[in-house]
């Protein structure tokens, strides 16, 4: 026998801290993994010293922003400061210097 979930049950499920913690954990883990992939790809492109090398900074900026979002979701303030400073000072400077200038 299958019961229909009512509106109040759906609200209770979405407000359930265990449900939200699991959802945030999955998103955080996905962002951490995709950040690693973006960082490696950006580093390889940047170090290839070809005409497309400048676009590696975009992937590195994407990596930093993903790890910033993930660390803010988990409350890791040290990693949040690291990724934010890396994004602002290194990635944005590289994008400005190699792509916009």
Description:
The chain is mostly helical and 101 residues long. It has a domain of 51 residues. The protein is built from 4 helices and no strands. Helix 2 runs antiparallel to helix 3. The chain is elongated and about 45 Å long. The mean pLDDT is 83.
Task: List its salient traits.
single chain; 101 residues; mainly alpha; elongated; transmembrane helix; transmembrane; membrane
Q: What global shape is seen?
A: elongated
Number of helices: 4
| Proportion of helical residues | over 70%
Name the quaternary structure: single chain
Query: What is the rounded Rg?
Result: 19 Å
Spatial gap, N to C terminus: 66 Å
Low-pLDDT ranges: none
Structural class: mainly alpha
Fraction of residues in β-strands: under 5%
Biggest sheet descriptor? none
Mean pLDDT over the residues = 83
| Strands, total number | 0
Element pattern in H and E: HHHH
Element layout with pairings:
Layout: H1 7-14, H2 17-47, H3 56-74, H4 77-100
Helix pairs in contact: 2-3, 3-4
In a nutshell, what does this entry contain?
With 101 residues, the protein is mostly helical.
């Amino acid at each position: 026998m299958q019961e229909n979930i009512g509106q109040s049950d759906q609200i209770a499920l979405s407000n359930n801290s265990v449900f939200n913690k699991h959802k945030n954990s999955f998103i955080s883990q996905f962002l951490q993994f995709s950040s690693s992939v973006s960082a490696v790809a950006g580093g390889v492109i940047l170090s290839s010293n070809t005409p497309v090398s400048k676009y590696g900074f975009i992937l590195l900026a994407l990596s930093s922003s993903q790890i910033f979002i993930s660390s803010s979701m988990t409350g890791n303030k040290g990693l949040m400061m690291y990724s934010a400073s890396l994004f602002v000072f290194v990635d944005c400077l590289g994008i400005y210097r190699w792509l916009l200038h």
